[in-house]
Amino acid sequence: MVMRGLSMAAPGMISVAFAVAHAASLAGSTASFSKSTCALQRKIFQWINVHRQGWVMTEIYEGGCFCGRIRYRQHGRPMFVHCCHCRDCQRQSGSAFAVNALIEADRVEIVEGEPVMITLPTDSGYPHDVYRCPQCQSALWSDYGRRGWLRFMRVTTLDRADEFAPDIHIFTRSRLPWVRLPESAIAVEEYYSPAKLWPQQSLDRREAARLKAGSDR
User: Would you say 103 and 76 are in contact if contact means Cβ atoms under 8 Å apart?
Assistant: First the structure.
């Protein structure tokens, strides 16, 4: 499901939104009000919360695990999307590749349930933390290197997984021979430099998230 958010408004609108939300709450204490009023109140609080985070929501993409115990919302589009053909992703997913959408951690909201973290070894020596549903064990996202501020969302756990096609295919040296890539696809045998391929807006978002977290990588 994709929800359209509220666009940017003047800073003074935040106080107006608080007033409207408060008035709606008072109305509810004396008389029942319509479902549309409740929906408006929820949307106002959602808009306020987004502005407090320091970024503006334009779209919300909902997703979850196979059994439905974990539900989440992804606020906005990812910075970049990988289709990874490395042997680790193949073994961990039981498939030919894994599709990961890179996005700031504070843009992912857990709506229902609580995932469990499983740490896997990597060739780099940095930990690979995979967050899974404790019941069906669906992998929802990863934190490569335990940065804390960056998430690699499993695109196919989104309700509308077709929204995000890969921007790049990585580690194609271990791509299975029967997997054919589009002629226009960007593909590299191993990894790549984000500075050379990411849009400037995505690079700016990545750097802002890193600085906000006080991380050196």
Answer: yes
